[in-house]
What we know:
The protein is of the alpha+beta class.
Amino acid sequence: MINEFIRRPVLSMVISIIITFLGLLALFQLPITQFPSIAPPEVNVTVEYIGANAETLTKAAIVPLERSINGVPGMKYMSSRAANDGVGVISIIFDAGTDPDVAAVDVQNRVNKMMGELPEEVIKAGVQIAKEEKAMLMYLDVTSTNPELDEMFLYNFADINILTELKRIEGVGFAKIIGVKEYSMRIWLKPDKMLTYNISTEDVLQALKEQNVEAAPGKVGESSDKTEPHLQYVVRYAGKYQNQDDYEKIPIRSNDEGQVLRIKDIAEVEFSTLYFDMETRFNGRPTAAILLKQLPGSNANEVIARIKQRMAEIKEATFLQGMDYDISYDVSRFLDASLHEVVRTLAEAFLLVSLVTFIFLQDWRSTLIPVIAVPVSLIGTFFFMQLLGFSLNLITLLALVLAIGIVVDGAIVVVEAVHAKMESTGTGPRQATEGLNWNMGDTCTGDIGYTACSVF
């Protein structure tokens, strides 16, 4: 078979051109990530039981959900963790090769069966189901030099104006702001005051449910088809309270003498954040840290370029005076450095193979052969990488660097063996090449016993 390619150089050239063309097409379609995707799919179920400790959360929510989820198709194992802040997470690990989208749907169906048995507070907070994205992409830090723009403001500004835009970018699979600083009205109860007025926590909660509601008041003056139309009014209702004073004036109890006990009498109302468990800083300043992960099969460099372009547009259009953003972590830096080393190694290999072949053989024709053959084999590798489902990552790029040295070494040795055969027997290039004994996987030797190569 090898001699057939030697006797028909046009066929060999056509095959080489096709391999190179397929490799170039695959090169522009290969996904680029920092590391290969070898971890099994994972789906996380997050529950929140406000005010509950870890033991209560486990008994009331985690255990029932585990019983329902157990045995979901493709599940390998699952683990759960609960904390005293009332937040619990169930992690379901699936077999390698399982479609993460299908796995998330199967888990969602199992969770829906148990929703009616969960505590009311858990149902109200919602059960979040999300597939875990492993491919880290970048960290964005939204900061401000204005001391009036604190971490709470930056979080909510990023949540409203930035996060929604980043989630719509093609290739972004996960976007989240680290730490929950969502605006919230906090009511700090005073136990001594509550004891004096004989008020329980349940009384306060009941007052909030009755007074602070969203309602549909309807219309006034709407007529049926049987009567003439009247003047119609649509009743407007303010809805839930929006400021601190409104919450302070919510009545809890009243007596026959007209005295009213309000929330401000037994508690301190504060406009603050939902949680205090985490704070983020960048160079000592408050920041809203945004974590981004990429979709499987996407090109990290292209996704990061879209994110940077969109962030520049958002900064120009919506950022306030003194606000800015920084990129504290960027996967493309590592990938660009790896790609640079591959190109650098390839250029050095071309230079070395040209110098070594020409200096020792003193023949431009023999020098040109490995210079043309090496790119064909390396570029053709990208086609087979795409065929096998590989991606361009730090591991495959390192393998390419090692392969360059092996291919260059093999090309030099083969050309040198053919040249030695020509000089010893006086035959032409074709006859000398056909005279070599090609042992695939071992060595290539000629009739004169000259070791031609050890890489074929």
